Amino acid sequence: MSVSRPRTILMFTATIAATAVMVAGCASSNQPEPATDGSGGTLRVGLAAPPTSLDPANMEQSTSPFAQPAYDALIRVDEDGTLTPGLATEWGFTDDENRVFEITLRDDVTFSDGAELDADAVIANLEHLDTGNSNVVSLVNGGEYTKVDDETVRIEWDSPHPLAPQAFTQRWVAGMMASPDALGNDPGSLATQTAGAGPYVLDATQTIAGSEYVYTARDDYWDAERQYWDEIVITVMENPDQRLNALRVGEIDYAVGDLSTADSAEADGLQVLHAPTIVYGLSLLDRDGELGSPLEDLRVRQAINHALDREGIAEALLGDYGFPTEQVVVPSEPGYLTSHEGYYEYDQDLARELLADAGYPDGFDLPVIASTTATAAQFAQIYAAQLAEVGITLELDTRPGPDYFEAMTGGTFPAAGIGYGSQPVPMEYDGLFGPDAAFNPLGVTSETVQKTLAEAAAMPQDEAVTLYEQIMTEIVEDAWYAPVAFAPQFYYASDAIAPAAVTDARPQVPLAELRPAG
Question: Which residues are in the Solute-binding protein family domain (predicted)?
Answer without folding.
Answer: 83-426
